[in-house]
Amino acid sequence: MTTLDPREVFLAEANELLDRLETTLLDLGDQPDDTTLIDTAFRALHTIKGSGAMFGFDRVAAFTHDFETAFDLVRRGAIATSVELVNVALSAKDYIRLLIEDPDSDTAVIGDAILAELDRLVSGAPAPPAEPAPTGWQIGISFAPDILHNGTNPLALLDELRDLGACTVVPRLAVLPDIEDLDPESLHIGWDVTLVGSAERAAIEDVFLFVQDVMELTLVPLAGELPVSAPDPVPPAADPVAPAVERDASVRGPAERRAPPRAAATMRVEAERLDELMDRVGELVIAQARLSQMAGLHADAGIKTIAEEIERLSARLRDTAMGIRMVPIGTLFSRFRRLVHDLSRDLGKPVTFVTDGEETELDKTVIERLADPLVHLIRNAIDHGVEAPERRAASGKAATGRIALTAEHAGAQVLVSVRDDGAGLDVARIRAKAEERGLVQPGTPLTDQQVYQFLFAPGFSTAQEISALSGRGVGMDVVKKTIEGLRGSIDITTEPGAGTAIVLRLPLTLAIIEGLLIRVGEARYVLPLAVVEECIELPADRSQGRGRDFLDIRGALVPFLRLRDLFDAAGEPDPHQKVIIVAVGEARIGLVADQILGNHQTVIKSLSKLHADVATFSGATILGDGTAALIIDPAQITAGGHAAGQGDYREVA
Amino acid sequence: MMTDFVEAGRADGTLQVVMLGIGTETFALEAGMVREIIDPIPTTRVAGARPHLAHIVNVRGNVVPLADIRTRFGMPVTAATPDTRFVVIELDIDGDPILVALVADKVFEVTAVALETRQQVPTIGTAWRPEYIRSIVKSGDDFVIIPDMPQLLN
């Protein structure tokens, strides 16, 4: 066990709560009448206030308290939710985060402004419906039997009740089992409490705020002492004067069904430990490869069986370990709703934001590093992609733009795309800009795809005006660098007038991949299996020829590259050369090798910084015999090999 | 550059070094940067890499570049002999620690050199680029070169 700093725990928890609060508030903007959402937001606030005070974040607690007070009016239905209210609540949420991250910051003026705005919005509200101040309450409490499993302490709740006024507590013992049948982890008793004092209904309900789903609470003003016999707005579940036994029997059933035991379903683990686990698994996979190689040299059937068994086990262990690191991408997507909300407001471009494929899982490292690129792409989509409402109206489009953020699996890759329904990319303008910046000689023939690549050049921007958000040409080059760092690639498709789609192709994981081991000359190389489409034998008439280096694959023209030439392999080529057809984005290309050795579980080792100039290889791995082998980066090979024109402008750039 | 190197020296003004024979020259590497000295192991050629970093090797599960500084000093590359060793060193390049294996034709000894014998690199009389050399010191009767490894490799 490691001892965790309680403040760290609070910070992690508060982050989650604030994220949930944000999602809820944004949902509330769409469905202002949903009381469940209001309750969820209120509960998140209440928890932040409580734990903030507990861990010494006094300013957080104080601010949240005021925020909560205002929000309480919403919860009681005294005022309706509005767009302004959601916006203010969002800035209040941001302010809480600021207070948590920098408790000593000198920003009280911001907090006051937010509270003043909140006050203004809620002050128009009628005062909460006045409940006659009762002289006391008859309170019936019964919990689901498994309530103790999640750490609830009913006695503490009773103590909180006592704080509200003088209490007489009578336990309900009717269903208490015999001592030999007693399960000490289940709660078998309920309570009837007579509270004398002027406590309000809400104050009593707040005591049970967090357990209200797993309990039955009845609240009846003390009879006979009420000045006015007001109708009770919350119908009690049962007649409070009915015998306690009967009531217990009637509520216990549903309560039990509603609260399935959920203990220990998930646990928090430090990310570092997962990284360490992955490293160990990587070492195991390498050691296993050595064992398999050794076993292959022995005739002993027993050793072979064990080696195969270990190979199977280590492959499963690898899959499990990688599975642990997989996180649904939805956690990332939900962050962008706020971004779109704010941008759409600031730019005056109404936009609907649609997400799909939130359940798609990716390695946590990939997800973390994906956040910044997606921010850039979404900003660009709203700022440059979606047109202003007038222009949209002029071209017969709906005034509200649409941004779709989607994720889906495609083989061993995940495709994450940002689509807008804006005006599309202007090829001529990008080209003109590239020529102006000297990235390409005027008149050079370029395909549209090649022209789009200029968008990724550092400092490249076609925006006529620089806005606060984009147009300064910072960003797309960073996007490209990040995605390439993740061993992914970027596809751009656009249709004039109908919108642009930017598709990021990403590998599932960064640590271990399935590879195809090939031999070129004396050396062995690994190709990521994800990009391999098929392997064929090089036709004899092509094995020596020069100038016609392409193949006819079922009617399609596929150019090929001789890896022997590319890697300067020594010795004579094998008589029967093999062609591995790889697909990178839209392009397909054949790579000619001497021999295909088979599948290889490839533990990726990055190349040294000193080899940063070597682009052909994305990393290295260690083979069964202990030697290092290089991992070919097909994206680099196809980029460098198949477009002669590309080389021209690269030199100029 | 020179100061941290002097600071690495001991209080008595000496510096612990590992003496290596590479080509026709004797080099002294600061002992603090040397991680281990191993027998030659199989190497893998990296197509497209610069000539002095043309191979990689597996050193205890890490893929490490194999540096052959003979090409940097214009010396002929000769075949390995029974005396050839790989000296694994750790360098600081732009703030990151980086492992590199260095081909040495012979490893002589670990010894102390006196820093006051330090000489300026002569601008004439050597075929080497002065930025590759940190200093020249006297060890016994010979002058030995203390190379500037980050400069030399990057």
From TrEMBL, chain A:
Keywords: ATP-binding, Chemotaxis, Kinase, Nucleotide-binding, Phosphoprotein, Transferase, Two-component regulatory system. The keyword Kinase applies. GO terms for molecular function: ATP binding; phosphorelay sensor kinase activity. CDD domains: CheA_reg, HATPase_CheA-like, HPT. Residues 512-643 form the CheW-like domain. One of its GO terms (biological process) is chemotaxis. Pfam families: CheW, H-kinase_dim, HATPase_c, Hpt. It catalyses: ATP + protein L-histidine = ADP + protein N-phospho-L-histidine. InterPro entries: Bact_Chemotaxis_CheA, CheA-like_dim, CheA-like_homodim_sf, CheW-like_dom_sf, CheW-lke_dom, HATPase_C_sf, HATPase_dom, His_kinase_dom. Residues 304-510 form the Histidine kinase domain. It is an enzyme of class 2 (transferase). Its EC number is 2.7.13.3. The keyword Membrane does not apply. Residues 1-103 form the HPt domain. The modification Phosphohistidine is found at residue 46. One of its GO terms (cellular component) is cytoplasm. Involved in the transmission of sensory signals from the chemoreceptors to the flagellar motors. CheA is autophosphorylated; it can transfer its phosphate group to either CheB or CheY. This is Chemotaxis protein CheA. It comes from Methylobacterium phyllostachyos.
Automatic annotation (TrEMBL), chain B:
One of its GO terms (cellular component) is cytosol. Residues 14-154 form the CheW-like domain. It comes from the Bacteria. One of its GO terms (biological process) is signal transduction. This is CheW protein.
